[in-house]
Amino acid sequence: MERARGGLLKDVWILSHKYFIDWREGDNTNLLWISGGAGKGKTMLLIGVVRTLQDSLKSTEAESNIRSHFFCRATDSDFNKATAVLRGLIGQIVEQHRPLVSHLREDHDKTGRSPFEGPNAFTALSRIFKEMLGDPGLTARVYLVVDALDECEPDDFPELLDLIIESASSARVKWLVSSRNRSDIETKLKKKAALVELSLEENSDFVSQAVNTYIDYKVSNLAEAKRYDSALQKHVNDELRRKANGTFLWVALVCEELGKLERWDARKLLNEVPSDLTKLYAGMMDRIERLQGLTPEFCKTVLSISTLAYRPLHLSELTALADWPKDISFEKEDLKKIIFTCGSFLTIQGDNIYFIHQTAKEYLSGNPVIFSKGEKEVHHTIVLRSLDEMEKLHKDMYNLRDPGISIDEDKPLPPDPLAQVRYACVHWIDHLCEIASSSYDQVGLYDNGKIHKFLKEHFLHWMEALSLTRSMSNGVVTIRKLEDLLAVRFNESRLLDLVRDELRFMLHNRWIIENAPLQAYASALIFSPVCSLTREQWKKEEPEWIITKPIMDSNWSPCLQTLKGHWDGVTSVAFSHDSKQLASASYDSTVKIWDAKTGECVQTLKGHGNGVMLVAFSHDSKQLASASDDCTVKIWDAKAKTGECVQTLKGHSDEVTSVAFSHDSKQLASASDDRTVKIWDAKTGECVQTLKGHSDGVTSVAFSHDSKQLASASYDSTVKIWDAKTGECVQTLKGHWDGVTFPHDSQQGTASVAADENQERQLSGYGCNSNVSWITWNRENVLWLPTECRYGKVAVSGSTVAIGCRSGRVLVIHFSPTLSPLEMYHDK
């Protein structure tokens, strides 16, 4: 970071500023916000602060204090997410106070996986972070520094700001954050009473002095490296001071350019260089255009692709995406030279290409110099080059040689065979959606065109690659985009039919391909419908070691996806009213929220002390209520990534069986086995009515659409209708001869409880594992069984396995008695 920003700022003027001293040493300022425009040195300032904290906190009474920092970077997907911020902060905190690792270990022991990964990572990490800061064994002050909040992804930073504001209420937690001047950040942060803002614009004299000191430092280095005489050194120093306008980034960029020139060209550059940052970028582009030969075009190619890429590219990925002349062979060092020639727009770190600053990318976006034919034309080139590279995909890219091997066991030997094509696999459809419609034919978006042929010949190879690169969720999203694109373009098309079938194939088999990549060629094929276009296209890949395959339906079932994640029976499901999310409740005491489009679990809500019986969304889809056997109702923020429980409603004396929001989302009703119905204020959590009258447990509640009445159903064989305002029972409906239940109008789902006999079926030869999720051979997983094919009785006779399923279906699978799955697989 220091190298990328042009060197460490020696004169950290903020250290003597009253606001900083109050923040560091006082008790009244727990949140200090440094705001300022682009290039004003916020990052360099915070680097200096971090260095100072690290040095000063090593002494005497400050030795026990904890300091943790993170520098966000918009152009790097590893550094622009709220989850990445928490990972960095937590890691440093644990390093300095080892007992706090128990919070991480406890979460890992409960879930069996690292809280640092997965779609629920931010929810898990924010909870762990708050638990660490509130740990009674932590008595020291905790100094937390986060730079460039504005460079966090838009979907992430509001939750991060909320977490910062909430945790800053602790007397021993000290936050120092920086960002550009943005009203949304200012509005959020200023909700915190103890916030102090330090504006760089309002402290321009201090900034100017620091810039001058930085110029002295940079020019001294240039004079030594380029052998400036005293007159030239003074001229360079004076010109930089005159034109800098208090902008560190401008100084760093100009000094970078001076470092590439001979000393006799320095005066000319300084005379020509503008003092405005945008004009400086324009001058850098002008110098690129004046280069000789093919170099200007190569530079424009690199800059245009880097600007449109959805994440920073590796050198090998850029080599694959660029349309280089066919008669020129590019080596790694050649590409580095081109990037070095691209002015000071780009920098290379660990063979990954980054923009020197967010403003550089902003300047290049839509720039007619590098996009002479428009951005769509570059997207067009990226699509064609991506398809060319992906045509090199083949079965078993990592040479795993075992159809049942887990994704967690794959360890490719260097060089990574997917290194060059990783970006293309994830983002080729994203770029396809950006090209001009007039270019569709040129990229082969038609029947038997280039895209159609790729999907017919490489679809399973692509699925395997997405799994190996941990990108299956991206694959689901992008193939849906392709389906939508084709549906607009064609009424009828064999390509569209194939894409729709491949989407069903992906949704049906996502979990197993995501977790065991090579099952794409085994379980995913033989358990797909007989008439599936994908299965027919890839019939040659069906395992030869399976002689008699299970009899499957001809066509896809109405079931679009099976969502896995609960470890005990699912008791309730509910769609949000905007149809974007699905919630599920389980006997495992958790609630999960799923993306209804991709099937990805976006939140796991924990807090109930017993099984959760029912879930219901508010009609504005912003909140989710859960009813539990622990006698409570919880209301959750359904939109926040933290999975925050905003209310816990207590008052029932027996398990809560049902909940329902009123249609105006202002009230919540709950039913219980304690024979009562309660009406709650959804905002305050206050119980406003307790409705009594049923003689047995109440099973269901539902509001009328005008929110004026409430109906309740009971095991006492009656339905009662209540006035929701007065609590008066206005009708009792009799006629049922047994207990009555009715579903919430937004719920279409069923509960499923999985059980097995815990009988070990791993024998020599073929068999099943203990929960009948895999068919095994010599105790090795070789064929995964879909959910609907499990939980029944198993019989094994030699190389034949029969499974009686609860659906009534009996699967009979006959395997080759002479050829093992591994041997056959290795031969193929």
Name the shape in a single word: globular
Assign the structural class, choosing from mainly alpha, mainly beta, alpha/beta, alpha+beta, or little secondary structure.
alpha+beta
Beta percentage is 15-25%
The number of helices is 24
Oligomer: single chain
Gyration radius over CA: 31 Å
**Beta strand count:** 30
- Major sheet strand order: 2-3-4-1-5
Distance between the termini: 48 Å
Helical content class: 25-40%
Low-confidence residue ranges:
741-763
Mean pLDDT: 85
The biggest sheet, with number of strands, parallel, antiparallel or mixed sense and barrel status, is:
5 strands, parallel
Q: Could you describe the 3D structure shown?
A:
The protein has 828 residues and is of the alpha+beta class. It contains 24 helices and 30 strands. It starts with 17 loop residues before the first helix and ends with a helix.
Give the topology.
Elements: H1 18-25, E1 31-35, H2 42-56, E2 66-71, H3 82-96, H4 101-111, H5 121-133, E3 142-147, H6 157-167, E4 173-179, H7 183-189, E5 195-199, H8 204-226, H9 230-243, H10 248-258, H11 266-272, H12 277-289, H13 295-308, H14 315-321, H15 332-341, E6 346-349, E7 352-355, H16 358-364, H17 375-390, H18 422-432, H19 450-468, H20 472-489, H21 494-515, H22 523-526, H23 533-537, E8 546-548, E9 570-575, E10 581-586, E11 590-595, E12 601-606, E13 612-617, E14 623-628, E15 632-637, E16 645-650, E17 656-661, E18 667-672, E19 676-681, E20 687-692, E21 698-703, E22 709-714, E23 718-723, E24 729-734, E25 766-768, E26 774-777, E27 780-784, E28 793-797, E29 800-804, E30 810-815, H24 821-827
Parallel strand pairs: 1-4, 1-5, 2-3, 3-4
Antiparallel strand pairs: 6-7, 8-30, 9-10, 10-11, 11-12, 13-14, 14-15, 15-16, 17-18, 18-19, 19-20, 21-22, 22-23, 23-24, 25-26, 26-27, 28-29, 29-30
